Amino acid sequence: xxxxxxxxxxxxxxxxxxxxxxxxxxxxxGTAAAVIVISLLVFxxxxxxxxxxxxxxxxxxxxxxxxxxxxxxxxxxxxxAEYQTIASESNITIPNDTNAIHIKVLGFQWGWSFTYPNGKxxxxxxxxxxxxxIILNITSRDVFHSFGIPMLAEKMDAIPGKVNxxxxxxxxxxxxxxxxxxxxxxxxxxxxxxxxxxTVVSQxxxxxxxxx
Amino acid sequence: xxxxxxxxxxxxxxxxxxxxxxxxYIFTSCYFGFVGAVLALLMRTQLSVPDNNFxxxxxxxxxxxxxxVIMIFWFLSPLAIGFANYFVPLQIGAEDLAFPRLNAxxxxxYLAGGIFEIISFFVPGGSANGGWTTYQxxxxxxxxxxxxxxxxxxxxILLTVSVTLGSVNFITTIFWMRAPGxxxxxxxxxxxxxxxxxxxxxxxxxxxxxALVLLVSDRVLGTVFFSLASIQPxxxxxxxxxxxxxxxxxxxxLPAFGVIAEVLQVFSGRPLAxxxxxxxxxxxxxxxxxxxxxxxxxxxTGVPLALQNVFSISTIAISLPFDLITLAFIETLxxxxxxLNAPMLFALxxxxxxxxxxxxxxxxxxxxxxxxxxxxYFVVGHxxxxxxxxxxxxxIAGIYYWLPRMTGRMYNEGxxxxxxxxxxxxxxxxxxxxxxxxxxxxxxxxxxxxGDWPLLNGVASIGAYIFALAQIALAYQVLxxxxxxxxxxxxxxxxxTLEWPQVQTPVVGQEAPQGGWIGELNTxxxxxxxxxxxxxxxxxxxxxxxxxxLLGVPYYSSSLGIATILIGLLILAYSVIGWAMDDxxxxxxxxxxxxxxxxxxxxxxxxxxxxxxxxxxxIIFFGTFIGAYLYIRAASPSWIxxxxxxxxxxxxxxxxxxxxxxLTMALALxxxxxxxxxxLLAFLGITFxxxxxxxxxxxxxxxxxxxxxxxxxxxxxxxxxxxxxYYFLVGLHGAHVTAGLIVMIxxxxxxxxxxxxxxxxxxxxNFALYWAFVDVIWCFLFPLFYLM
Lengths: 212, 788
Ligand code: HEM
Ligand SMILES: [Cu+2]
Ligand SMILES: [Cu+2]
Hints:
Chain A has helices spanning 2-9, 14-47, 64-87, 203-211, and strands at residues 101-108, 111-115, 121-123, 125-129, 133-140, 145-149, 154-158, 164-169, 175-183, 195-201. By secondary structure, chain A is of the alpha+beta class. Chain A folds into two domains: 2-92; 101-211, Sandwich (Immunoglobulin-like), CATH 2.60.40.
């Protein structure tokens, strides 16, 4: 959560930016709804505490009208939220970008290996050029894993026999993002240790790195 | 003295009385809740500080897995079923459940399954460790070898069978056993919500049984459903599991809603607001739609975007009725006279926590946001707010609410209030930090000291201890009230539902049948209640047979394992025959009351209603397998050619045999309708011969196939998976036919005894229904396997 907040402050790659905007909308709606409804409950409990001479059976039983009104209000909130989700789906749609860099990701018990376009392979470290559009083809050698980079708001399952695609825009700030990549599906005794770094380098050093 | 003790013990072990069985359920589930809680505290201790070595990764995974499995399947639902056992019959004015022995059987199967879960920890290699969701292929023997996981899955199958039998029982009870005057519109809310729960169980558990049976078949028989990467078994499992799994979360929740609905009315003095809106939206939106949202658990498995959107929208849609229900609950308080006794406090607390959990659920319904939350502690926070917050708080409300009814004594209100306050605070200290841990993967056994993880995890662990300590107060309350509590007035809360003494059935104005086992202990309050209890040793013995036989299954390759299986089967056969003899000799008779509210099933016999209900769950059961088969066919890169392996003429011959036997069975039924016992026997005999011929041909067909190398162990992947699906599905159907043949022996014996007459031949009628079902299944299997 605090991680999410700090993301908002720094300049963000596109997927993370889209995510925070959507998340903030849900958070605003969610908090408002929780506060209103819970306050109402607390208010009723205080207001209608048992008291002498009060006969609750004097009042008519509420029917469907209030229910209908509240349903309409909630429905409009939910529809707005869902609409914004669908509007943010560039995050989960592979972009049609000819400059994108395609990298293969293989999950195994317990680690990640990355294969770059020229066949170079790295273990537990994904190196990408700053700001570039990266498309990952993710699969697994043994059991079900899930490849996630929370700081970029992206995640995709690594499933044996199936290749899934995921994309992200690399962070603009170069450096080593330690432990930025983790496995998010229980995959055996070493699940907690299935961690990889994300290394972001400048465009030139990437060319040098990849051909070394 | 000795004799008294034995009688006491028999009174519990052989009981078929719904109250006693209910009490057994309640105490057993609390025991399992305790086990689950210990596992949870072990996990929270391990996670309280970074880089901890308190547990190994392997044991942590067992703990996290069995915590989930035990809490959901052996604690939450059975606790609710315990209440339902005790109070549903009382609330509708029924003497007992529709099928009392079946009910006892449900309980013993549940217990036997639970024992499997516990002993799995003590076999070499330990218990299952792939999470309660058991994602494949992690659960196959390649990645989780050993007897432990197999025992877990077998125990789990027993539980699902128990639940299915229970569903049949409750649906029949609620529709067929209501006292005069308890019309549909007068059914109390707890019974209604139990009914919704049971319907969801009836249609979702068969999918779970199917998935588990496929898995156990892989582990024991060597089929390859979940181990051939080429057919993407992970996706097959995900679909099967979540088709069951989403309805399951409502199965956990709805009983608590039932309790909350009762408690709110009683302690506010107001009738439920918008009652019909609640009932109708649950019945026509929540129930059907709960089977149409499962893919929100699969947003990141690579399903097409359009499908993600469909399931995102359906998830949003299903949250709407919950919003209605919550607001109706709150509106009920309006103009009330609210008494904040412990049941009310827990009910209100449950609503507050449900609101928070429901809202985090809406976050999860967004496929875009799910790219962060999936598999993280945010999900853990979400479902604990609903499962612990709403469901357990609601059920605790039920414990306090009904404790005076069950014991005739009153609990200590002051202590109960402290229990509530500490639980509520401890709960939030425990689970709120998880809502903030959006980047921490769930189910990791250790973490390094980064960012806010140590702080939030430390706080959560402290909350866990507070919450757990508070529950000691609950245990103390229950035991103390039971043995020493001050006498309670008969209807301490002034409730208006029939389970309370002195409440009159509407219309007729007579008191509902009471009968309470505890009434004998404590007659001064509850009044001398008659305890009708037909003892039967069959349910527990039958379960013991199944238990012993299954215990040998993981070890079937050793002679000791085989011996265990055989002994178990002997016990099983003995008790099944005993059960049948009880019926033949009419040793166990359930007297149905003549009159009652049975709409819309007033023209249907009780047994037939039960049979229909059972068969409808069987349809889901076979449907799941057929769905899995079609998935495999579609996912498999190639398949065996039509006619190359399975001989179409032989298949066609068998089809003719079975369909003909369906006709002769119909003639058998027709004969006895006209009162002709001789023709009945003749047609039953022909049906039996045709069925036996079918099975005979099947067996020789299999022997032939096996000799030609059509084996699940084949090196050729296509043959291996084709053989797996063929032997499995056709074998399962064959098992149904065989079971039918065995029942037919019993029916023929009863016919010879002259026990079927023109007026009374329900046994034949129900069997004809079953046999027709078995025929129809074959009519699907024949084209699926032989012609395409
Ligand atoms: C407003 C209603 C709800 C909505 C919109 C909702 C939505 C969701 C979604 C989308 C997920 C999948 C999250 C993921 O794995 O990425 C989820 C998970 C879950 N929900 Fe809910 N939910 C709601 C209510 C409930 C209730 C009432 C319960 C139980 C009483 C529940 C129990 C669970 C459980 C156990 C999981 C996690 C399963 C697992 O992966 O282990 N939810 N919920
Ligand atoms: Cu993992
Ligand atoms: Cu769900």
